[in-house]
Design goal:
The protein has about 425 residues and is α/β, with parallel strands linked by helices. The protein is built from 14 helices and 16 strands. The radius of gyration is 25 Å and the shape is elongated. The termini are far apart.
Amino acid sequence: MAELMDEASTRLPTRFGNMLVKVYRTGLGSEPMAIISGSPQSEPIVPVRVHSACMTSEVLGSMKCDCKTQLDWALQYIADAQNGVVIYLPQEGRGVGLVNKIRAYSLQEQGLDTLDANRALGLPDDARSYEDAASILDDLGIRRIRLLTNNPKKVNALKTLGIDVCERVPLPVMPNVHSLHYLKTKRARMGHLLEIGGEPPTDAQVSEMRRPVVHVNFALDCNGRTALDTGQSLQLSCATDWRRVHELREHYSAVVVGARTWQLDSPRLTARREHLGREPRRQPERVIFAGRKTVEVVPDGRRTFVVGANRRYAGGIGIEAQDHGVVAPLEVLHRYGIRSILVEGGLTLLRSFIRDGQVDCLTIYVRSDSKDRVVGAVDAALAGVPVPVLQYERFGEGTLVSGINCQDFLSQPN
């Protein structure tokens, strides 16, 4: 067991309830902590989470990983059970430290996954150790535990240190458009036991679908509007969200809008350098759902598809559609080689995709950080159209709302 001293303790009111917090100091000067609910030493088997610090997620709100979600879930779990311990270990970046973690993040922006980024820097895949956790459990008089983890290597490490792990309790996985590739890497290359909903389909599955993969993405104000009553669009996205939108655009086959959005905004529907901070890797093609309206398309070297009943248009590839459904036009787009689309507006078109059950991923940026106002804005915008279970995450100057089965296509453009 590692040598450590019990340095301080106090009762701390938290949003999860009243917790006992004990801070230790190791011989190397680090300060691991035990967050305790109830009187676990009197229980035969104690739920325990051994959690490694993640400043980027827990302090800065990074969406690249699931660390804060896991920590919050574990704290709520022991609070609800009125029994349990979360051991918080200062092991940033799987033990390589904050500086190296940020260096690895920089390499991930260039396309490496979390493991290959570490290896490119000459770092181990995982440098964490759990001797301090075992010593804390010994100090608390806890012998048998129910371990809250998705990582079987953590189970084995604690067993090797003499901890009787009677059961593994899986933590729920809630991916977002930034974290899914990381979660898939943890499962495929690090052995984590993850059930990830809404994974991107394989190339074979996309072909079998007979339609493009569909990601609906739009922005709202706190009243559920995308535009003023005059039709003029609202400037809703902050700089952080604009970067997210333009990263999405460069990874989808095409961007889709309705005729009203096309006519009022004259959108370029391009991925742009001023938002990405670099040159775009590629540009999407364009799809306009025109209905019975006449639209004019100025050729710019990209294919532009016009879906509608009125065939009087210039510069686009016509896809005839006599009703307001999206199923048949999607099948035609698929035959043209469009394998994935990003649907950006307006609200009537967005509702049609959801109502027809043709949405694989839903993300909504709301310019508000009030949960009540965000929920109200989404309800108002969708006007009663049923949607999947949603999760809410603080993002930039507002909130990013994601479908629970959200999918990430950033790792492999379609």
